[in-house]
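Researcher: Go.
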Amino acid sequence: MSSDTKILPDAARQGRWQPAVTSDPLLRKHGSLGQSVSRIEGPMKVQGKTRFAAEFPYDNISYAALAFSTVARGRIIELHVSAAEAAPGVILVMTYKNAPRMKAPSLMMSSPTAAGASDLPVMQNDEIHWNGQPIALVLAETQEQADYAASLIEAKYELMPAVLSFEEAKKSPRQLENLLGQPPLVEIGDAEAALANAEVKVDLVYRTPRHNHNAIELHGATVVWNDDELRVHDASQLLDLTTGQLADIFGLDISKVHVTSPYVGGGFGGKCLWDHQILACAAAKLAGRPVRIVLSREGVFRIIGGRTVTEQRVALGARRDGTLDALIHTGTAAMTPHNSCPEQFTFPARHLYGARNFRIGQDVADLDMLVNTFMRAPGESVGTFALECALDELAEKLELDPIELRRRIEPKTDPTTGKPFSSRYLIEAYEKGAEQFGWSKRSHTPRQRREGEWLIGMGCATATYPYHRFPGGAARIRLTADGHVTVSTAVHDMGMGTATAQVQHLAARLGLPLDHVTFEYGDSRLPRGVIAGGSTQTASIGGAIIAATEVFVEELIKLAGNDSPLAGLSLADVETRDGGLAHISDSSRFESYRSILQRAGREEVVCEAEAPAPAEMQAFSMHSYGAQFCEVRVSEVTGEARVSRFLGSFDAGQILNHKMATSQFKGGIIMGIGLALTEETNFDERTGRVVNASLADYHVPVQMDVPAIEILYTNKPDPQAPMGARGIGEIGITGVGAAVANAVYNATGIRVRDLPITLDKLMTGFAD
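Model: Structure:
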């Protein structure tokens, strides 16, 4: 344990889980987790019985549509809305001239209730900050009427100077004070001098483009005011933060805002608080009617941020044996002056590999554009592309197998912090994956394998994503006289199976059958939950449930009284099993939950607790890891690249549900294939307009683009994490871009350092 680890006030109490000091007691129950249970909400979804944000019925409901600015920077000098107001079915046209007065959102992470992706005012003045900013909202009796009326709105602008070129903006970068809580620059030794003197070196630049969110469920909300109370049905990853932020924006007590989000059709970092929810609340208040807003696919591109552009330098200086004297990872990401989401692409280089000298840092270039935001594995997805490609380029110069190079630079402790790893089996993941994938058949020399016009190659790369557990999450456990338990917390299930995993978790922790447990979530009126982001939610819920379970067991021991076999025992003396409590070493001293309640004359027991502070994160370096293996086929005639096989071998601690986890990993890998080969948001630097704002022009992988994907696990519980589980939601995408690029090089001898890897880039390489 590090010297700065904070011991919780109750750490001395026997039987308590003490983060960074003791392991989760559940880890002593062999085989209690990991079953491949189907999602409990699955039958309801396939029967159409689940309601998403835009499906809640209200009498007299109205439908909203937005009109968007067409300039990047300026002021509205004329806004013609009369044609829209006169259109059939129109109820209201809201602009900055008649919108209710609202406070600007606060930037996420700036306060406990802040949820804003931007801190710009929302439709409060005539100023335009990006091309696509909402300039009007139309309410009508039908969605078609609203859409038509919005198309009739015309605006004239006074143009203001706009910074739209990344090449120009990066010439005068801005240094951040901190990089999502980490120092923006890490220097150990003199990396530049070590690089200059290195026996073998690479010094390379890699570039990644903008990416846009395209969840299956479009962003939407249903809003209704009941006097001064605001009710919002949202598609949200930030249930509690949205509640607090809306209360602040509209000057309400937080008790007057009720937000629900029971089902979300995909989030990936995009289902947060944006202008459309705020504007829908404002319009509903102004019109005195319920409002439903659903963004069009184009609307998502206009006002929902995504991943931003990066330019990254990776320089590696090595000795002949492959060990690193210098590791340099620097560069620039685009951003805006009014958001707080730098694309932290240097994070993997801080923790993955050992080197004698480090220089790791990044800055930002401010552009007048829609704010960028979190998108599955922000930073790590594009950072691993650069780092892992550079490692392969170094391996070739060293005449080493890429996996062997990674083995030689495997650190014993965190390379930049010196902290011990809580658990790390990356090399084992590589070994398992290499054997299963047939890595030994890979040719060290490119362009050696061919089937007709198709060149075939293999590549690999490391996957990584940090473990996080947010403080502040709480859980409530309710036991009824029939022996049924309900656990409640205001968290989210965005299709990844949160409810199912937590039912499994509580059933295992309390020694109950699955059908005796209910998980209640998705409602801001429940005990305060944490956000669904950064692969944090499972561990954060787990910590809260551990704390609530401890209070629950202590309460039951008290209720049992002196006539119980449990008399005189404490929390440290008992374990949960078979629907009750038992002495840890004397199985005859047992009493069921139902018996305890019956004898105490109680119909129920309700206990609530908040998770202890995440001390484990201060004491240990904690990450999920993986080894990504890719086989590609590249047509020498057309330059088309196809991923023909993919295998991911992961070290992510205890796998709570193999079926759902496999689905999560496959989903991440598929997004990674998109990142590597197809996805790019085309930004017109003359106007600041996104020009491919549809799925017809923005290409996500479809079924024909995706091969059979195999998933392997080390499945070794992390002793420092609740349930032994680290996050899995985001790691699947990391390393995929590099694995594909490295495979393309092995197939063709063409190195593409600028994503996506498109056929024109490969054909140019063939021509050269």
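Model: The chain has a mean pLDDT of 95.
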